[in-house]
Amino acid sequence: xxxxxxxxxxxxxxxxxxxxxxxxxxxxxxxxxxxxxxxxxxxxxxxxxxxxxxxxxxxxxxxxxxxxxxxxxxxxxxxxxxxxxxxxxxxxxxxxxxxxxxxxxxxxxxxxxxxxxxxxxxxxxxxxxxxxxxxxxxxxxxxxxxxxxxxxxxxxxxxxxxxxxxxxxxxxxxxxxxxxxxxxxxxxxxxxxxxxxxxxxxxxxxxxxxxxxxxxxxxxxxxxxxxxxxxxxxxxxxxxxxxxxxxxxxxxxxxxxxxxxxxxxxxxxxxxxxxxxxxxxxxxxxxxxxxxxxxxxxxxxxxxxxxxxxxxxxxxxxxxxxxxxxxxxxxxxxxxxxxxxxxxxxxxxxxxxxxxxxxxxxxxxxxxxxxxxxxxxxxxxxxxxxxxxxxxxxxxxxxxxxxxxxxxxxxxxxxxxxxxxxxxxxxxxxxxxxxxxxxxxxxxxxxxxxxxxxxxxxxxxxxxxxxxxxxxxxxxxxxxxxxxxxxxxxxxxxxxxxxxxxxxxxxxxxxxxxxxxxxxxxxxxxxxxxxxxxxxxxxxxxxxxxxxxxxxxxxxxxxxxxxxxxxxx
Length: 569
Ligand code: ARG
What we know:
Layout: H1 2-19, H2 27-33, E1 45-48, H3 50-56, H4 60-70, E2 76-82, E3 85-90, H5 92-106, E4 120-124, H6 137-154, E5 158-162, H7 171-182, H8 185-191, H9 193-209, H10 212-225, H11 229-253, H12 270-279, E6 283-286, E7 289-292, E8 302-305, H13 313-328, E9 332-338, H14 342-354, E10 363-368, E11 371-373, E12 376-377, H15 388-406, H16 413-431, E13 438-440, H17 442-446, H18 453-469, H19 483-493, H20 495-505, H21 509-528, H22 537-560
Parallel strand pairs: 4-5, 4-9, 9-10, 11-13
Antiparallel strand pairs: 1-3, 2-3, 6-7, 7-8, 11-12
């Protein structure tokens, strides 16, 4: 639609140049004025004439009528003035030589943009706390973060995905104590994170009875900070064990990172920033702790140093942001976390601004809502957590059962079951507006009938199967003969604009919802129009090419939301 809007804008501009030479508008401004009519039977796009009314000193209905009169372009089928709007319909010729031809020409690039070229975006996402379970609460940061990375890449940005591991803090002191007292190498090697979590939980249970364990843990952490060889070895080992396990889940999602620099990486980078805050008189002592007072900005103080001089979560984030700016010279640095951390980000973003860093406004926090499963809230503290790996395994198993029943002879069943099972969860999650709390209904997520990942992948496989049976595509004449074809092409035409909207709002659900629109339009076309059995060769060729364009668009959109392309289901 962007291209269509541009072409129509040029025509409107030509009209304005004649009718009102001092209008002072350009095509970009006109382009931004278009709206979508509430019902597509009214038109494909609508141009409101209210703003022009002020410039031209005429009533909007009169202007709409005058523009309608002047518009003569092969891209427009008709233009109707209605209540100050000009409702515009695309011509069939534009649908084929404009929309379809562009998709064919651009292929894997269809929907992409170039405005990000030469700029870098840093994305901080997933970022689990080491030696703690990777649970369903992390699904949001992981898949929203990765989707935003793919979206920005699609707009030409070079992207740096950072897994800012929570790999530093007193919990490591606790873990070291627990490991020495109750653990064994064998148990950790065999049990992985589950064993580390068990040790951590045991520590808390024992510390309830014996207060002195807490002091012991603090001592071990201090030794770690002072590079005690044995503690460093254990700490590194705990991280490796955790990472190995996270990587399995990331692999299932098709996600990798450009950097795994976690919180510990910034240990030697904090003093410079703390000194700067001190020099600028930003630091205040509050009951022995060092804080930045933010009362002027209606926020509680940002904690920089504890009473004992040790650093805190915001201190590390500030040092990391400066490091990233220096290393990557980012145009934007995006942080994806649960909305529970919104205040933390607002606070330290403000501190960065007060420190005089002129790029403070390039830091973006992208929050998301909470997850419950089948109506149950998750309680991390009581250990009642649902691990991401279990959730995926469960979904994969259910898909295997469905496939066993519906398509037992499918080749590479295991691979497909993983793509569909994991895809179902990711799609269900990303279908939700990110800030809304979500209640995960497993049955719904896995359904092939609703607005789900399996439905989308099934439709993709359907386009593949049509194309597999179709004759060679001919690049000759095309002819649209049904409203279903026209409607589908109009939906496909919207993809580049949807990508823009998704980036603008940091909202992957724009893409998942769009995928469903495409699938619905394709399936309607598939059921109502003969494709391979069409009698007329031109009609058949057109329908095959429309199917190929659908496959291209769906495939490109899948790549933006961690959904794997399944040729067969
Ligand atoms: N490790 C943190 C957590 O699990 C998330 C880190 C987010 N990124 C950041 N730079 N603060 O809650």
